[in-house]
Design brief:
It is built from 20 helices and 14 strands. It is of the alpha/beta class. Strands 4-7-10-1-11 form a five-stranded parallel beta sheet. A hairpin with a 2-residue loop joins strand 8 and strand 9. Helix 12 crosses helix 13.
């Protein structure tokens, strides 16, 4: 949330606001016009959203231009929440509200009894405050214990105890939706909301009013309601009731990145890395994730989240930092040997088919080897690695491992031109990066069965 104060030149009373020529717009009109302006000017309205450029985003843009409430359907880890959280960027940076109003009403259109009374009494001197667009986005994670009071509101017993009658609208404590008046309400995992609670949203979405404790308070709410959900064909937790689903004007299906480059870009964007993780290792992780999504041993109804690859990159980075701390390396650079650390750590993030019980680690290790081999072919294809094989076969083994520094590994390597070619191909400049590149080539040769790999009792790995 932005805490910066609004510009000093902005109006401070309703009279000043009218003099300035300010025009009131609904939330949907505001977002439509700002979206169209961004598209005309070639400005990206969706910073940080990767892989949806040709599919999800055009559908979402059409839905917003049409003024529709939107529900995003997709498996876990497809970026639904991240996409919803960018919507507020389409709002005006600053918008006027009645100063002190509970619902942030527009100074031209008070809707609560208190604001109506103040507007009538003060006229053009009604004070105006300014709200930043980040404050106009409200998000709720739907949980089974969410109540109507949380979303819509309830009678406040304290106000009743002060002497007001139950029928007095001023006794209401407003919930999330009315408090988001003139903004965006996002409900994550909408099917988790109990069906009787979903019913409370019907009037909000169609008639734009709310009902509390048996009487209706007519509030012309101005909100954009957006939601995320898992596809109903596999979730056992709940469903979106048909009348509510019918009220969403746009139902948009999200997906995992369709291109390998997008998968890598998501990892680079989201992962919090404390060591250098070379691009070829990120590619291994991206390919590994994609192979899991294609595997018949994995429950594809559950999906394999993008968070799997992100967590993998962070784990590999942590392994490199750990090694540099233990061995006293100046720079922490991840190497292929660090990929082995992710299997045990991440297996809980994957749902396997029921017939694969007991084989989880075997499946993960097999697919990780495939991802590594595919990366070697893609990155080092065309480089003749035969001189390296010949040298190793001639009695020049190479020792690596979690307890072997990059400098020690480079010292084990023979002086061959092919190693410089590998480093150049992978853009490796530092000792750590060159050691990582060489280790990738050695692992590729082992997976192609051109050399052997044997662990010893000291935690080292010997390519021979």
């Amino acid at each position: 949330m932005v805490t910066a104060t609004p510009p000093a030149h902005l109006a401070r009373t309703v009279g000043d606001l009218r003099t300035s020529g300010h025009i009131q717009r609904s939330v949907k009109d505001e977002m439509r016009e700002n979206l169209l302006a961004a598209l005309r000017d070639g400005v990206d309205p969706w910073p940080g959203i990767v892989g949806f450029e040709e599919t999800v985003l055009p559908q979402l843009e059409r839905g917003l231009i049409a003024g529709h409430d939107v529900v995003l359907l997709g498996e876990r880890g497809q970026g639904k929440t991240r996409l919803l959280r960018t919507l507020y960027l389409l709002l005006d940076e600053w918008t006027p509200v009645i100063a002190g109003s509970e619902l942030g009403e527009h100074p031209y259109e008070p809707i609560t009894p208190i604001s109506l009374r103040r507007a009538a009494e003060l006229g053009d001197t009604l004070p105006v405050a300014w709200r930043h667009r980040s404050e106009r986005y409200a998000e709720k994670l739907a949980t089974p214990d969410t109540s109507v009071a949380d979303l819509v509101g309830d009678v406040d017993p304290v106000k009743v105890a002060e002497g007001r009658s139950l029928g007095d609208p001023e006794t209401i404590h407003f919930g999330l939706v009315p408090r988001a008046h003139r903004g965006i309400v996002a409900i994550n995992e909408l099917p988790d909301l109990a069906e009787r609670i979903q019913v409370s949203l019907l009037n909000v979405m169609e008639e734009r009013d709310i009902q509390v404790r048996g009487y209706t308070l007519r509030l012309p709410l101005d909100v954009l309601l957006v939601a995320s959900a898992n596809p109903e064909d596999y979730t056992n937790r709940g469903r979106i009731i048909t009348p509510l689903k019918d009220r969403f004007g746009a139902e948009i299906h999200t997906h995992y990145p369709s291109l390998l480059g997008d998968e890598i870009a998501v990892i680079q964007q989201e992962a919090n890395l404390h060591a250098v993780v070379p691009h070829h290792l990120l590619e291994v992780l991206a390919r590994f994730t994609r192979l899991l999504r294609e595997s018949t041993s994995v429950d594809q109804r559950s999906g394999v989240s993008a968070r799997f690859a992100v967590a993998g990159a962070e784990t590999v980075s942590a392994a490199a930092v750990h090694r540099s701390a233990v061995l006293g390396e100046a720079d922490a650079v991840a190497r292929p040997i660090d990929l082995g650390t992710i299997v045990e750590v991440l297996r809980g993030k994957v749902e396997f088919e029921s017939g694969e019980e007991g084989r989880e680690l075997e499946i993960l290790e097999h697919l990780l080897r495939r991802a590594t081999a595919d990366t070697v072919r893609a990155q080092l294809g065309g480089i003749d690695l035969a001189p390296l094989v010949t040298t190793i076969e001639g009695g020049h083994p190479v020792v690596t491992g979690e307890r072997v520094t990059a400098k020690a590994l480079l010292g084990e390597l023979p002086e061959l031109e092919v190693l410089d070619q590998i480093a150049d191909r992978l853009g490796s400049a530092t000792d750590g990066e060159r050691a990582s590149a060489a280790e990738l080539a050695l692992e590729g040769l082992y997976l192609a069965r051109r050399i052997s790999k044997n662990p010893d009792d000291n935690g080292q790995t010997i390519y021979s």
